[in-house]
Model the fold of this input.
Amino acid sequence: MKNKKSKEYLKLIENNKEWAATVVKEDPEFFSRLSNTQKPDFLWIGCSDSRVPADRITGTQPGEIFVHRNIANMVVHTDMNLLAVLEYAVDHLDVKHIIVCGHYGCGGVKAAMSRHNFDLINKWIRNIKDVYRMHRNTIDFQTKPEDRLNKLIELNVEEQVMNLAKTSIVQKAWKNKKSPEIHGWVYSLEDGLIKEICNMTHENHLDPLYEFDDL
Ligand code: CO
Done:
C-alpha cells in the first residue's frame, strides 16, 4: 500500500527544491565549492529546541558552523556522540571557536528543576540537577520562579563551557595550538538576541584536579 504523504511533509521537499534553485541563481558555484570540503571556524553545541537554529540566529551559511545539539546543550563526559563531534571539530576541522548556546525558557532545564519523573530522560537531565545542586544558593536567592529558571540556564551554560575545558581534547589543543576559544551564550526566544555569558581560552585555568599534566 502506498503511503499517503502529508502536506506539511511534502512542503519540506518542495521548499528544498526552491531553496537549492535560489542558491544556484545567486551563486552558481555554491554547491560545487562546498561539496568538496568544509572548513568551519565554529563548533556549536546547542539545545535541540526547534526555535534555536544555529545558522539562522547567527546569520551564517552552510559550511560555517559544525553543529551538535542535544536537550539543554549539555557536555556530558560519557556522551560518545558529543566527544566524537568535539574531537573531530578540534583535531581535524581545527575550529577556532566552540560556542555553547543555551536559551532562556529552556524546557530541559525547567524539567530538571521539577520533581516530575520523565523516565529515560531523567538520566539526561540528572546532569542539570547536579548543576542546580552546585549553585543552589545563587539560584534560590532569586524570588521569581522564572528568574530561578533563567539563572540556572546561565549557570548551566557556564558549567558546560567548563566541562569542555575538562576534556583532554580541549586541553591538548590549548597546549599545542592555543586554540580554540570557548564561549558561553544564552539566546532569548523573546527578542532573538544572544547574551554572552562567559569565555574560556588557553590562558584560563581550572581546578588543577582537572588539568592533565601528561598531554
Ligand atoms: Co532548550
Summary: The chain has two domains: 1-37, 38-203.
